[in-house]
Design brief:
- It contains one helix and nine strands, in the order βββββββββα.
- The longest helix is centred in the last third of the chain and has 9 residues.
């Protein structure tokens, strides 16, 4: 399978370690998170599947994000829920850093069919 194309979404200087930044990918609202401890930049759809609230201000730690509204936690690499508040995964996107630019895959990391199966369970 060919790798999905990437879209330039932001300048790395606009996302210092520990910060979050709202961006759009086509019509999809994303949240970029720059994890301070690891330097990893994560991209996720900015909507918690538990209560459809934005993730802005959620705590990012050890590769996870916690929804600031209801406490649901998710793995930022796989999208899977990590606590019992919800079983629904989040939509995550691969990130590449090229020079001082943040590029995000135009396709989610978690396959659509896996999201559909999880949501219908």
């Amino acid at each position: 399978m060919a790798e999905a194309p990437y879209q330039d979404v932001a300048d790395l200087s606009s996302l210092p370690p520990g910060a979050q930044l709202r961006v759009t990918l086509g019509a999809t609202a994303l949240l970029l998170c720059h994890e301070a401890a690891t330097g990893q930049v994560w991209a996720l759809k900015n909507s918690c599947p538990h209560a459809f609230q934005p993730f802005d201000g959620g705590v990012v730690s050890s590769g996870t994000i916690q929804c600031p509204k209801h406490g649901a936690c998710f793995d930022l690499a796989s999208g899977r829920a990590t606590n019992r508040i919800t079983a629904r995964p989040i939509t995550v996107y691969a990130v590449h850093i090229e020079g001082d630019r943040i590029l995000v895959s135009t396709q989610p990391t978690v396959p659509t069919e896996e999201l559909t199966q999880t949501r219908s369970s």
